[in-house]
Amino acid sequence: MSRPTIRDVARHAGVSLKTVSRVINGEASVRDDTRERVQRAIDELDYAPDQAARNLRGATSHALGLVYDNPNPYYVISVQNGVLAACRDQDFGLQIHPCDSNAPDLADELRELVGHARLAGLVLAPPMSERMELIRYLAEHGIRFVRIISAAEDPADGYPCVYVDDRDAAYDITEHLIQLGHQRIGFLWGGAEHRSSPERFKGYESALKDYGIPLDKKLVIPGDYSFDDGFRGARRLFALREPPTAIFGSNDEIAAGVLAAAKANGIDVPYELSIAGFEDSPFSRQSWPALTTAKQATEDIARHAALRLIAELKPAGSGVIHLNRGFSPQLVIRDSTARVRTTAP
Amino acid sequence: MSRPTIRDVARHAGVSLKTVSRVINGEASVRDDTRERVQRAIDELDYAPDQAARNLRGATSHALGLVYDNPNPYYVISVQNGVLAACRDQDFGLQIHPCDSNAPDLADELRELVGHARLAGLVLAPPMSERMELIRYLAEHGIRFVRIISAAEDPADGYPCVYVDDRDAAYDITEHLIQLGHQRIGFLWGGAEHRSSPERFKGYESALKDYGIPLDKKLVIPGDYSFDDGFRGARRLFALREPPTAIFGSNDEIAAGVLAAAKANGIDVPYELSIAGFEDSPFSRQSWPALTTAKQATEDIARHAALRLIAELKPAGSGVIHLNRGFSPQLVIRDSTARVRTTAP
DNA sequence: GGTGCGCTTGACAACGTTGTCAACTTGCAC
DNA sequence: GTGCAAGTTGACAACGTTGTCAAGCGCACC
């Protein structure tokens, strides 16, 4: 009736509990024929180890936490699915933990989370992953983690991460606009608490520089990763004496806001104004016209991060060196960007 | 260094382990002064029970599973946050479990999930919550659950649920369109595997009937809860000899597809065509024009469902009778619906 | 004063796994 | 054949909690 335990498997295979445990955990010192016998017993009984018991006993628990504070459900779901794929693959549990990145006692909250649910480690999404004081606190308290961060290169700060080269992708988007003939390109910033924001700006800046286009500060508007700030920012740009012919919104939501503002002002996209976003959210495909953007392999990135953490967790001194891996978003050209019109239609 | 255990609390309060356990679990037979003393010790030591140990020993574990298969991240995140709020409140863990509702061995998969992670029960989102054969299977195998379903009234089938009256809300939306003067109102169905689809259709149907408008089958298009089906469905409606003056998409994604199709065909919204959606997804606010829709209190609904499940889990024979609770989405009027134009502009 | 009952409390085992450590087996050099 | 190291296996305790059961206490009742 009830699920089989390791005891049943041991009896079935004619070995001790401990040997079964060794097979389950892939430990080295088990003879091949014994291992096979045990494996067969496991398969026959359809045995799966009990998470709770496993986490209770071990110095090594089998559960991760995923910490995020992101208003964008598309991003969050992608990260969840990626981490979950890794956890299922490795037979780990996952405790999701949305939080407020500005909470004053976030560090304690996370420590409590780890203790309470006996988590082996945390996957940290931005912006938590980019708070160095938090990172140091966790490290000092012996909490294992991996960060998903925005960086043009490996930060090599001794703390594990997977990094996304937003700068490079933002460069590509800006370059695409320049190659369409645009010289006045507006830039709408994302939220200051995300490192991706300055990274994306740097990409924009450096593409302009490489093509000899001076940076006009009036074309650069601060804001948040939100539709509303996109809308407002766009209206400020439209009101300029010399408005831009293209606008690069730091993410798709901002770009959607720009699109709405353009519609509201009767500006035709893309013939009077080109718009580019960032992220490849589903609605970048579902707006009209569909948005040019940069596609992040978020699910893959997250899966990688979790696998990296799990691998690092395993045997302390296996001698394996784990490297931080980088990902680059890819330019996706759709219908919201077009060659700049040279004369009135 | 390490976290305090129930043993530390017992020593601190000068009582036995078991008494502390009783206080933690809110059992009745503890004298008030003892309870207070223990509670003080708990507070002073900042003690929190260990989930893994708790789940291991008990017939009653302290973890729920959330099962969903929904392409809409806004919906999923809302459900997650609602269930999570309940779990945090009640000191439960949560294992999320996205799945494929069409997988042939889903029932086994869920049984394995419950066993593997020692879950006390499952919160089932649509469409899993609406598969009666799955529901019966779970019940037969002693797996506790609560369903979030679409229904105009309590199904009273003996299995616990929280129900959402999509029919009523769809009636309101249709009525709103009729009151704006629309007589030819297109309807785009959602996915057939979701009970909300026929429910929303029934609301549409019955509003038409109440206002004496004959149902024209050419105006009713089958499809899925997706942007693409909204786009395609709208184009089929536009091609009719007598196209509709308003279109009711079964959710916001469909409505966004309709909006895009209208733009693509140069049809002005709302002056030439009114569009309504359903769900109040953020992008219903972020499209241009913003969509008229029905607002579901998804997070609240999910929180309720989880609390209901947890309450039912507790003492077997407490004599409390738990009732299924219903929720009604509310009409939200925005800019995508307008009075029908009587003459050409 | 003894009996029985209800309320409160505690001793102890048990949940299913892994860590520790010791014992056994095998292979190989002497 | 002996000695020794490496490889393999098992007995047992332990993780932190809850379920079971029985004991202690006070009180009402005969």
From TrEMBL, chains A, B:
Pfam short name (any one):
Peripla_BP_3
UniProt-listed PROSITE patterns: HTH_LACI_1, HTH_LACI_2
Under InterPro entries, the record lists: HTH_LacI, LacI/GalR-like_sensor, Lambda_DNA-bd_dom_sf, Peripla_BP_I
Give residue ranges for domain HTH lacI-type. Answer: 4-58
Q: Which domain of life is it from?
A: Bacteria
Q: Which GO MF term does the entry hold, naming one?
A: DNA-binding transcription factor activity
Sorted alphabetically, which keywords does the UniProt record give? DNA-binding, Transcription, Transcription regulation
Q: Does the keyword Transcription regulation apply?
A: yes
Which PANTHER family does the entry link to? LACI-RELATED TRANSCRIPTIONAL REPRESSOR, LACTOSE OPERON REPRESSOR
- What is the designated name of this protein? LacI family transcriptional regulator
Organism of origin: Dokdonella fugitiva
